[in-house]
Structure formats: C-alpha cells, structure tokens
C-alpha cells in the first residue's frame, strides 16, 4: 500500500486519485460487518503511516472526516474526531 489515498482494505489497485468520498465508500464496504474498533484501528494505522511518509495532508484528513463522519453515530464520530486531531499533530 503506497498511501492512505489508495487504501481500500481488501480492494487492491485503487486509483491514486480517489476522492475522499470514493475512499470513504471503499473503506466502508471493505469493513462491512467488521467491528468499528477494527475499522478505526486500521484507518489510524494507514493514515499515520501515510502522514509520516508525507503523502497525506491535514486538509485530506479533514476531508475524510467530513465525508465519513455522517455515517457514524455520535460516539463513533467523537472517536474519529479524536483520531483526526491526533493525526494532524504528526
């Protein structure tokens, strides 16, 4: 996996130019039926890796949050916001 942008869980060969919305849909489908803890843990790991590699910007992280958060309940949204803020500090 080269960057968070092309992360699709179990779906290889995703285009490098995927929008945040496309990325969100692919991640959601890849984790269908899996626990939110597993999903968030893997998203965090991939995002942290990409952020450290310089392939993920704070703006892209925020766009991901804005696209993905409406699919979550309030508790999950709070957890994701905390993750987003942590990633932005890297």
Beta-strand residue percentage: under 5%
Instruction: Give the total of domains.
Output: 1
Taking Cα atoms only, what radius of gyration do you get, to the nearest Å?
12 Å
Unreliable spans are 8-17
Number of strands: 0
Helix content: 55-70%
Q: Please state the structural category.
A: mainly alpha
Count helical runs. 4
Can you summarize this structure?
The protein is an all-alpha fold and 90 residues long.
Q: Characteristics of this structure?
A:
globular; mainly alpha; single chain; 90 residues
Question: Would you write up a description of this structure?
Answer:
The chain has 4 helices and no strands. With 90 residues, the chain is mainly alpha-helical. The chain has one domain. Helix 2 packs parallel to helix 4 (74-88). The model is unreliable at 8-17 (pLDDT under 50).
Please write out the topology:
Layout: H1 20-30, H2 36-53, H3 58-68, H4 74-88
Helix pairs in contact: 1-3, 2-4, 3-4
